[in-house]
User: Which sequence fits this backbone?
């Protein structure tokens, strides 16, 4: 087994069908709990091909911090016009049902989503599990001397190292939920292709 296979092995074990999820929020967790979701993106992968990308814009109850606004570009005035999270949950849940959910930085996005489900008294559909692509990429990223935080390599660092099309750059660098989950799906498939190569 090559060094690529050893370090990327976990990615080659992903099913051919999965979804990627990403959120943009009002900020970071604080003494009042997780932030509110402002946008939620889902990219659908079927037979290792990206087949669909959707984004749900949800009206937050909390104020969007200036730092968060600078990242995703959504103002409080704009977000006030979005539909509520619970009114769109049935559509979101349909995408999640019976799927493996891949998230880059799952330790942030997944608890935030679960908080919303609990807060609005909703029910989570059955899923196959949650896979954090950021943590899974740590061994390879460290071997490649890519910058890594405690959470792992950033999506931008992996995009550059793997020579994947930069969807964010094509959209003026904006961190949109739809852009980021599409970017993550492209990175995962690039990693998976490397993990299956023989050297």
Assistant:
């Amino acid at each position: 087994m090559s060094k690529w296979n050893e370090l990327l092995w976990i990615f080659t074990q992903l099913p051919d069908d999965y979804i990627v999820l990403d959120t943009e929020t009002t900020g970071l967790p604080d003494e009042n709990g997780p932030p509110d979701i402002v946008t939620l993106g889902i990219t659908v992968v079927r037979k290792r091909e990206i087949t669909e990308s959707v984004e749900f814009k949800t009206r937050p109850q909390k104020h969007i911090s200036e730092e968060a606004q600078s990242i995703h570009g959504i103002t409080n005035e704009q977000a006030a016009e979005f539909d509520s999270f619970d009114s769109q949950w049935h559509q979101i849940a349909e995408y999640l049902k019976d799927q493996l959910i891949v998230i880059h930085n799952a330790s942030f996005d997944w608890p935030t989503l679960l908080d919303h489900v609990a807060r609005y008294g909703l029910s989570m559909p059955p899923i196959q599990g949650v896979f954090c692509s950021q943590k899974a990429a740590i061994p390879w990223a460290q071997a490649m001397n890519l910058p890594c935080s405690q959470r792992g390599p950033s999506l931008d660092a992996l995009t550059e190292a793997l020579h994947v099309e930069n969807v964010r750059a094509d959209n003026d660098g904006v961190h949109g939920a739809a852009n980021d989950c599409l970017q993550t799906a492209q990175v995962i498939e690039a990693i998976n292709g490397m993990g299956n190569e023989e050297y």
Remarks:
- The chain has a mean pLDDT of 91.
